[in-house]
Amino acid sequence: QKEVEQNSGPLSVPEGAIASLNCTYSDRVSQSFFWYRQYSGKSPELIMSIYSNGDKEDGRFTAQLNKASQYVSLLIRDSQPSDSATYLCAVNGHNAGNMLTFGGGTRLMVKP
Amino acid sequence: NAGVTQTPKFQVLKTGQSMTLQCAQDMNHNSMYWYRQDPGMGLRLIYYSASEGTTDKGEVPNGYNVSRLNKREFSLRLESAAPSQTSVYFCASSPARGTDTQYFGPGTRLTVL
């Protein structure tokens, strides 16, 4: 079982809708959670970080964390075609050096 | 600030050739990382350097070596390239290891024939 799981997609939503991206992780002691956005052919860029249970909002983006269920999600409200990208979930792993472990990414397509 | 820079952007090697990927950051970060990204597999950590003078293996270190030349620069060397090393390589840096935000370079697309 991979340590960080994401549905590879593609997830297709119409413009203006809410896109919901999900991520589960296996290491119960993980403390830090990140969402990166990666456009095709580009490098990942951080869009959200979350460290405690509950919701964290930043503009059209909301990250949700449930440590009991080992689940982190990203909601994108009023989705725009420019949101079309692959979204990577990253979790700090219980490994030597406390490094981040990335999921395989979910490809989001927002249709005009 | 240029952030994290990587050279080259593209490279084609023949099996058995060697090369070094260069990475530099100008954010005064302590930690630096090398990842590879293959289709559908996200980012996998090859090596990292928690601070100047230290390096450690990540998830997929076989076939690679690294050097933390100074606080700014972290290079990745392929001594004898293999087709399985065809990938996109990203360098990243962060103020400290693990829990801090990592900032990524533009990547190097490597093909090994």
Description:
The complex is a heterodimer of chains A (112) and B (113). By secondary structure, chain A is mainly β. Chain A contains no helices and 11 strands. Chain A has strands at residues 4-5, 11-14, 19-25, 33-38, 45-50, 54-58, 61-66, 71-76, 85-92, 100-102, 106-111. In chain A, strands 2, 4, 5, 9, 10 and 11 form a 6-stranded mixed β-sheet that branches. A 5-stranded antiparallel β-sheet of chain A has the order 1-3-8-7-6, with no helix packed on it. In chain A, β7 (61-66) and β8 form a beta hairpin. Chain A is globular and about 40 Å long. Chain B has 113 residues and is mainly β. In chain B, β7 (64-68) and β8 form a beta hairpin. Chain B has strands at 4-7, 10-13, 19-25, 31-37, 43-49, 56-57, 64-68, 74-78, 87-94, 103-104, 108-112. In chain B, strands 2, 4, 5, 6, 9, 10 and 11 form a 7-stranded mixed β-sheet that branches. In chain B, 0% of the residues lie in helices and 50% in strands. Chains A and B meet through β5 and β9 of A and β5 and β10 of B.
Chain-wise SSE layout:
The complex is a heterodimer of chains A (112) and B (113).
Chain A (H helix, E strand, L loop, with lengths): L3 E2 L5 E4 L4 E7 L7 E6 L6 E6 L3 E5 L2 E6 L4 E6 L8 E8 L7 E3 L3 E6 L1
Parallel strand pairs in A: 2-11
Antiparallel strand pairs in A: 1-3, 3-8, 4-5, 4-9, 6-7, 7-8, 9-10, 9-11
Chain B lengths: L3 E4 L2 E4 L5 E7 L5 E7 L5 E7 L6 E2 L6 E5 L5 E5 L8 E8 L8 E2 L3 E5 L1
Parallel strand pairs in B: 2-11
Antiparallel strand pairs in B: 1-3, 3-8, 4-5, 4-9, 5-6, 7-8, 9-10, 9-11
What is shown here, in short?
Chain A is mainly beta and 112 residues long.
Short descriptors:
heterodimer; A: 112 residues; 6-stranded mixed sheet; 5-stranded antiparallel sheet; 11 strands; globular; B: 113 residues; mainly beta; 7-stranded mixed sheet; 0% helix
- Element-level helix/strand string of chain A: EEEEEEEEEEE
> Level of helix content of chain A?
under 10%
Q: Please tell me the overall pLDDT of chain A.
A: 92
Coarse morphology of chain A: globular
Total DSSP helices of chain B: 0
| Secondary structure tally: strands of chain B | 11
Amount of helix of chain B: under 10%
Ends distance of chain A: 36 Å
Return Rg of chain B in Å.
13 Å
Which class do the helix and strand fractions of chain A yield?
mainly beta
Number-wise, the strands of chain A total: 11
Judging from the principal axes of the Cα atoms, what is the shape of chain B?
Answer: globular
Overall average pLDDT of chain B: 93
